[in-house]
Predict the 3D structure of the following.
Amino acid sequence: MKKSSLKKLLFLFQAICMIVAVTVWADCTALAATSVANAEEFYSAVKNAGTSAVEILLTDNITIDSALSTPAIAVGSEQDITIDLNGKTMYFADATILSVNSGKLTLKNGSIEANAGNVAIAIENSAALYLENITGTASSGALIYSDSSAIYLNGAVLSASDGTSPVIELNGTDNKVYGSDGAEIQTIGSSITQAYNSANSSNGSSSQGTLVTVEVEDAYSVIIPESIDFGKLTYTDDESVKLAVKTGTIKAEYIISDGTQKLNVSVFGDGENGEFILKNGSDVLEYVFKDASGNVIQPNGVAASFAEAGSLDISLVIDRSALTKSGKYSGYLNFKFSLE
């Protein structure tokens, strides 16, 4: 009985001690996050971090570059640093700004953007990088470089804004990338360039997307009249019949563009400045060009404009009261096409 009572007393004593210990730890030894508002404060907080777990809280967007530290802001062996972006954005302006060598770095709750021309975050020598609720964008260089290290993605969406920059560059033979469910995401080759979300695995299997790209070029097909023949004309000054008119059709078979452009068809004749003329040796006969609405189009003017496939009529007019010399006249009506 005494032995049993002693055990109960000892258990009660231990329980009281545990409660006291927890209370003392909560009140006296909890470490508050270090708030930083600019790049200099951020660098100082990382530089002064010891081997105990440290949390850094951003209170504003910051841009960090190599001017702060050469060669990089380093998280060393045995260090465990958490950076809470607090909904803010961290911009990496130069190459290899943040280096993790055998240590642990966690980035959470915000955005990271790299336009470094090279690697923005480098992890190596069995380092660990945790990205939690992070949106990351790479442009003109890799967002993350991993050499024999591990990357843990939990609610992370990583993408290349230019469609070509690697999101994650891999070097060495022992790199691991894990989804939010703890399953390893299989990596193929030396880089991951596609938009990438964290939890792409289930039931022990995993999947990985490949960015498929294609560039569709502007293109169009236009049919113009093969020829326009007025036949034989005779002189007349009768106002009711003096104008000889011949029509033709401009047809746009298809138009491939960005959707904001129109296919414009402009016209000009054989004259020195594009005048609409027909020639018989040194003799010249003028004609008038009209669009589908009957408007007179000047040389080098737009005769038709297409937003989509379709056809528009045109007409050529010769004033028979202006005929002065007989003979066979001819000339070219020229068309120029542009997407604008």
